[in-house]
User: Fold this.
Amino acid sequence: CAALTSAMIERQRTGHPVHEWALARIEEGRGAAGPTVDQYMTTQLFTVHEDELVDLAAFIMDRERTRQILVEDRDLRLVGLISYRSLLRLLAAGGIEELGDPVPVKGVMTRDPVTVHPDTPVSEAIRLMGEHRVSCLPVLHDGQLVGILTERDLMPLASELLSESFEPR
Assistant:
């Protein structure tokens, strides 16, 4: 949105008709800090309560084709997350039997995940994902869950940057 708005303003200043305008490019909206998390995060969130069953989390992941489920407590505060990787590791290690049956989400979730603010530069979010070896970052604003930034959300940006890097000059 920022790139499109900036490009439109710049092209209006030229006085050329709209049909002659070049397409907007992502770097036109970057500003000094570059793109921010709120430009790429997903806001359609799937959450479970920490006392619900892992089976429910797995069902939601499969049905909604998501790779992570955010975990909230009774006050709707983020307390953890479950990723498909953590479920696979648990299954492969035979850890389900140790937790008993049924298995609550709080028994397998990653507690206190690394989070970011919507205004965090995407470059910083990517650095955090690499440093902490995570595939997503919950996005909090004033302590409230407002989104999630995943590797999948960053694919359009990566695609654009790669295509620009390999364009013939």
About this structure: The mean pLDDT is 85. Residues 70 and 81 are 4 Å apart (CA to CA). The two ends are 27 Å apart (CA to CA). The first strand starts at residue 47 and ends at 49.
